[in-house]
Amino acid sequence: MVEEIEIQPNWLYSYLICKREAWLISHGIEGKQDNIYLDLGRLIHEESYSRYKHEQIVMPSVKIDILYENKNTKVIGEIKSSSKRLKEAKMQLLYYCYILQKKGIQFTAEILIPKEKKRIRVELTDEHIKEIETVIEEVKELINFSKPPIPIRQSSCTKCAYEEFCWGE
């Protein structure tokens, strides 16, 4: 059985978008790495917020995009290329906050969308904790299946690094 700290935030994010993708990622099956949308995401991540002195936080199963100070407050940020999947991005960032809070570490959190010049502040509440714990249990159940769920066609499939895996002939 998988422990909650072992549930990686990107699994949670993927689970909220596509359960099949979450299963594949959690079982070490990589999508096509030369996907143009993955490349775009990497570029946005590398080029954005260079004016800030920042660092990445890396813990087992956790890789927070950016840590910086804003008006004497430490901020963890999740960089996204657009606000299309804002609910899922918020849950991913809240999961980071949840993990850090369990370790006794408190931060302000923001979703950063450089192309849209947006900063969306995110705060972990008791309601969010309950929601996260529910999703964690659902992800645990999913990744313990011996086979991935059958693919379900979505608009995001055309941009997904797993498109050929799911829909290739």
Give an overview of the whole structure.
With 169 residues, the protein is α+β, with helices and mostly antiparallel strands. The chain has a single domain (4-167), classed as Lambda Exonuclease, Chain A (Alpha-Beta Complex). The protein is built from six helices and five strands. Strands 1-2-3-4-5 form a five-stranded mixed β-sheet, covered by helices on one side. A hairpin with a 2-residue loop joins strand 2 (62-70) and strand 3. Helix 1 (9-17) runs antiparallel to helix 2 (19-26) and helix 1 runs antiparallel to helix 4. The longest helix is centred in the last third of the chain and has 18 residues, at 126-143. The protein is globular and about 55 Å long. The model has no long low-confidence stretch (mean pLDDT 83).
What would the keywords be for this entry?
five-stranded mixed β-sheet; Lambda Exonuclease, Chain A; 169 residues; alpha+beta
**Beta strand count:** 5
Question: In terms of structural class, how would the helical and strand content be classed?
Answer: alpha+beta
Could you give the order of the helices and strands?
Answer: HHHEEEHEEHH
* Strand line-up in the sheet with most strands: 1-2-3-4-5
Mean pLDDT: 83
> What count of domains describes the coordinates?
1
Please tally the helical runs, counting DSSP H or I stretches of 4 or more residues: 6
Radius of gyration, in angstroms, nearest whole number: 16 Å
- Please give the share of residues in helix: 40-55%
Fold topology:
Layout: H1 9-17, H2 19-26, H3 36-47, E1 55-59, E2 62-70, E3 73-79, H4 86-102, E4 108-113, E5 118-122, H5 126-143, H6 163-167
Parallel strand pairs: 3-4
Antiparallel strand pairs: 1-2, 2-3, 4-5
Helix pairs in contact: 1-2, 1-4
